[in-house]
Amino acid sequence: MRIKFEIPQNGYKAQIADASAAGRFEEWVYDKFIKSFRQAVNGNFAYEITKPSHIMIDFAHDADADAFIAVFGGREIDE
């Protein structure tokens, strides 16, 4: 399952700006949203930052995608 996650601007706007200015935005996204979740799921997934506020995540297992949506939000997209 592929999902689109939009990083909430409220509460993260300053962190996003700081990380972007320091050239660490991708690292910040990984640390904030991906790292802890990667340890919690059973399957594999890949992600891509498509815009400064969007992450596309492709899960091998639908249950992992459902869990991500339950924890962080996002929505399933059709390919």
Describe the protein's architecture and organization:
The protein is 46% helix and 25% strand. The chain is built from three helices and four strands; from the N terminus they run βααββαβ. Strands 2-3-1-4 form a four-stranded antiparallel β-sheet. A hairpin with a 2-residue loop joins strand 2 and strand 3 (54-59). The protein is globular and about 35 Å long.
Task: Give the SSE map.
Blueprint: E1 2-6, H1 13-21, H2 25-40, E2 45-51, E3 54-59, H3 62-72, E4 75-76
Antiparallel strand pairs: 1-3, 1-4, 2-3
Per DSSP E runs of 2 or more residues, the count of β-strands stands at 4
From the alpha carbons, calculate the radius of gyration and give it in angstroms: 12 Å
Q: Give a short account of the largest sheet.
A: 4 strands, antiparallel
Instruction: Characterize the quaternary organization of these chains.
Output: single chain
Uncertain runs: none
Class computed from helices, strands and strand pairing: alpha+beta
Number of H- or I-type helical stretches: 3
Strand content: 25-35%
Q: Separation of termini? A: 9 Å
Percent of residues in helical segments? 40-55%
Main-sheet strand order equals: 2-3-1-4
SSE series? EHHEEHE
Q: Report the average pLDDT across residues.
A: 88
Morphology: globular
Quick synopsis:
The chain has 79 residues and is α+β, with helices and mostly antiparallel strands. It has helices spanning 13-21, 25-40, 62-72, and strands at residues 2-6, 45-51, 54-59, 75-76. A 4-stranded antiparallel beta sheet has the order 2-3-1-4.
